[in-house]
Amino acid sequence: MTMCEKNETLRDYLFDELPAGERREMELHLNGCAACSVELEQLRVTTSMLKTLPDQEIPQRIGFVSDKIFAPSLFARFVAALPKYAALAVSAAALLVAFNHPAPQVKMVVQTSAGVDVSKQLNEAVSAAVRQAKAEDAVVLKTALDEADLKHQREHRMLAVTLEQSMEVLQKRIGVMTQLASLETPQNGAGQ
Predict the structure, then answer these.
(1) Which residues span the domain enclosing 157?
(2) Which of 55, 80, 154, 181 has the fewest CB atoms below 10 angstroms from its CB?
(3) Digit-coded pLDDT (tens) for 13-71
(4) What secondary structure, in 3-state letters, does the chain show?
(5) Are both 81 and 109 inside the same structural domain?
(6) Rounded to an integer, what distance in angstroms lies between the CA atom of residue 13 and that of residue 6?
(7) Nearest partner of 4 among 31, 46, 39, judged by Cα
(8) Whether residue 80 sits in one domain with residue 24
(9) pLDDT at 169 exceeding the cut of 70
(10) Are 95 and 23 members of one domain?
(11) Same domain, residue pair 82 and 176
(12) How far is it between the farthest Cα atoms of the chain?
């Protein structure tokens, strides 16, 4: 079939983006043009197939063939990530040491003009405030460690996927090379 000049407006017709007059004109054209009718049906099939695909996150960057060549090795990425995790480990250790040391006991003796000793009440209030601060700090630390762990797991999964993809590419290349080698190897009796 030959290409029709109206072929360019089929997409607009399919997605109902043509003005009413042009839409009516296209419908009349479709009744008489087999090439456009076939193309329109193919566009409909493609569109319906695309609608069945699940939504996926758009990649942040499109990878090129050269990216794999210049990409750092798995070992280099591991070494580059070490300072991040070392700093996190040192911070966590410092916080754990700080939490394991007992809070200094503040003992005050306060007497009011009436001679009432309120030091016990004040010490209890200070101790309660210290316990509450420690509990809040523990929650913040646990949240930070959980987030760091999740981030590490995501990075680990991404590295595993990248490694798996690299292995697939290598396997395909080996398969192609094997096929090429078998084509180049003369068969017994062939070529004589």
Answers:
(1) 65-182
(2) 55
(3) 999 999 999 999 999 999 999 999 999 999 999 888 888 877 777 666 655 555 566 66
(4) CCCCHHHHHHHHHHCCCCCHHHHHHHHHHHHHCHHHHHHHHHHHHHHHHHHHCCCCCCCCCCCCHHHHHHCCCHHHHHHHHHHHHHHHHHHHHHHHHHHHCCCCCCCCCCECCCCCECHHHHHHHHHHHHHHHHHHHHHHHHHHHHHHHHHHHHHHHHHHHHHHHHHHHHHHHHHHHHHHHHHHCCCCCCCC
(5) yes
(6) 10
(7) 39
(8) no
(9) yes
(10) no
(11) yes
(12) 123
- 187 within some domain: no
d(CA 188, CA 1): 46
The single-letter code of the amino acid at 109 is V
126 and 165 housed in the same domain? yes
Phi first, then psi: what are they for 10, rounded to 5°?
-60, -40
In whole angstroms, give the CA distance from residue 186 to residue 21: 66
Q: What are the structure tokens assigned to 99, written together? A: 């939490």
Angstrom distance (rounded) from CA 155 to CA 72? 15
pTM of the predicted model, to two decimals? 0.31
Contact call for residues 145 and 92 (beta carbons, < 8 A): yes
Structure tokens at 63: 């990878």
CA distances from 131 to 124, 163, 169 (A): 10, 47, 57
**Residue type at position 94:** A
Quote the CA–CA distance of 7 and 15 in Å, as a whole number. 14
